[in-house]
Automatic annotation (TrEMBL):
Pfam families: Polysacc_synt. InterPro entries: Poly_Biosynth_Transport, Polysacc_synth. The keyword Transmembrane applies. It is found in: Cell membrane. Its main location: membrane. The chain crosses the membrane at residues 12-35, 41-62, 83-103, 109-126, 138-159, 165-185, 206-223, 288-307, 319-340, 352-372, 378-395, 407-426, 432-460. It comes from Bariatricus massiliensis. Keywords: Cell membrane, Membrane, Transmembrane, Transmembrane helix. The keyword Cell membrane applies. It is a multi-pass membrane protein. This is Oligosaccharide flippase family protein. It comes from the Bacteria.
Length: 466
């Protein structure tokens, strides 16, 4: 099987596991708007944002180190058990800190937050362990199982019992715990986490690889999520709820990128030392950015239509802030692609500088513009910071691999998206948005013929055989 086909196969498998949960989040946001007001939505979003901040500190990015060395087949049992025992210790410390904080400062839903935090850490660790062990099908199934569990619990708690934010936190926790139990039962190698002792030599290896990723991940968090705290301070919790809804719509794009990244991470590690690496990487990068930009072209006008027609009136203006968030998601994905060089070469320290600078730019643009353009500053700062990160990393990446890029096409697609954002914002016609969406769909199919044609031909052949 060729490298491209292997990458496509892995992407499809990971899509099964991730697409369900991501699309569920995309659809359920429409439901949230009818059962949770802006202020509650803002508080719920802050909980998730804060958990995502402390996550790399608690897990110390050991999950990335574990995955990296499991792929290479290095002392699997020692890696799994050492990483897990370290995670258990840091999680206990985190729970104690949360308890102390809640006694000093009142925190609503403290118990649910504590359970959600612990279950998220363990589930994330088991997920990356499964990927590292090569059981991508179990990983995919677990993603679907998690989505189904969460959906059932959310419908019961939110729609039936009307528990609001408590229902959302409980649903996520229950789904995580169910998946942890499932993975522990189905994957025999995971059971060694209890049997094997803590290996100091293995820990030092994991720590050397993972430690530089912690500040790097925190900086990614600053770029992605610090906007919530700036919005809360300058504009209030209600605006944070509005931005939270706007931020969830680019999920359809981040779904594609997160699925691809999982498959690409494994392929890139294995193909890094191949003689025609640069050709392979360049080909994948070209197809990747064309797909992302073209999806963005369709999604910008489509989001306006969806929010205007299906979202509660309290959140009707959320579409205004989605355009630059979509573009930010594109350049975030491309920056992650380029950042693979740091991981493959195990030079993870070099990635920190680029994300630190991007984080500073994000905060500076946000703080400088929020008084003039309000909530739009959060969207614009996200785009600008990721654009800067991409520009820096495209230079850094020459140390690891050389990409041949059609910059004329790349710049044109970027400008086209910016013009589309302006058109949608400054015109108040849903009919025009519908027309732009249809034209964008046609353009998407034309640009991605190399990807779409083989799939269509395969489907037609199988249909003829039947």
């Amino acid at each position: 099987m060729s490298r491209e086909k292997t990458l496509v196969k892995k992407t499809i498998i990971y899509a099964i596991g991730n697409f369900s949960s991501k699309i569920l989040a995309y659809v359920m946001v429409l439901v949230y708007t009818y059962f949770i007001d802006q202020k509650e939505m803002g508080y719920y979003d802050l909980i998730l944002t804060t958990v995502s901040l402390v996550q790399p500190i608690i897990i110390f990015q050991m999950n990335d180190g574990v995955y990296r060395f499991l792929v290479e087949g290095v002392n699997k049992e020692g890696v799994l058990s050492t990483g897990f025992r370290f995670l258990c210790c840091t999680t206990v410390v985190a729970e104690i800190c949360l308890l102390i904080f809640s006694t000093i400062h009142y925190l609503e839903y403290t118990g649910l937050i504590a359970l959600y935090l612990a279950s998220t850490m363990i589930y994330l660790y088991f997920q990356d362990s499964i990927r590292g062990l090569g059981d991508s099908k179990l990983y995919a199934f677990c993603g679907v199982f998690n989505s189904v569990c969460m959906l059932i619990c959310e419908v019961i708690g939110l729609v039936g019992l009307k528990l609001g934010v408590a229902a959302l936190l409980a649903s996520k926790t229950i789904a995580n715990i169910a998946c942890i139990i499932l993975l522990f039962i189905k994957e025999e190698q995971l059971r060694c986490v209890w049997k094997n002792k803590f290996d100091r030599t293995v820990f030092r290896t994991l720590f050397h690889y993972s430690a530089p990723l912690v500040p790097n991940t925190i900086c990614w968090w600053i770029v992605n999520s610090s906007d919530r705290y700036i919005i809360l301070f300058f504009l209030g919790a209600a605006y944070n709820g509005l931005f939270s809804v706007a931020y969830k719509f680019p999920t359809i794009l981040t779904t594609v990128t997160s699925i691809f990244y999982l498959a690409w991470q494994e392929s890139a590690i294995k193909e890094y030392n191949s003689p025609n690496r640069n050709v392979f990487f360049s080909n994948i990068f070209r197809k990747y950015y064309i797909l992302l930009f073209s999806i963005c072209i369709c999604a910008i006008p489509a989001t306006k239509i969806v929010i205007e027609l299906f979202v509660s009136i309290e959140y009707k203006t959320a579409w205004i802030y989605t355009g630059f968030l979509y573009l930010g998601a594109v350049f975030s994905a491309l920056s992650s692609f380029l950042g693979m060089g740091y991981q493959i070469s195990q030079e993870t320290k070099r990635s920190v500088m680029t994300t630190v600078l991007a984080a500073l730019i994000n905060a500076a643009v946000n703080l400088g513009a929020i008084h003039f353009i309000g909530l739009q500053a959060a969207s614009l700062s996200t785009f600008v910071s990721y654009l800067f990160l991409f520009i820096v990393r495209i230079q850094h990446t020459k140390r690891y691999f050389i990409l041949k890029v059609n910059w004329g096409q790349f710049i044109w697609l970027t400008i086209l998206n910016i013009l589309l954002i302006a058109t949608v914002i400054f015109t108040d016609s849903l009919l025009l948005s519908l027309g732009l969406c249809i034209a964008g769909g046609a353009y998407l199919f034309w640009l991605n013929q190399e990807l779409i044609a083989p799939v269509v031909n395969t489907v037609l052949k199988r249909f003829k055989l039947k």
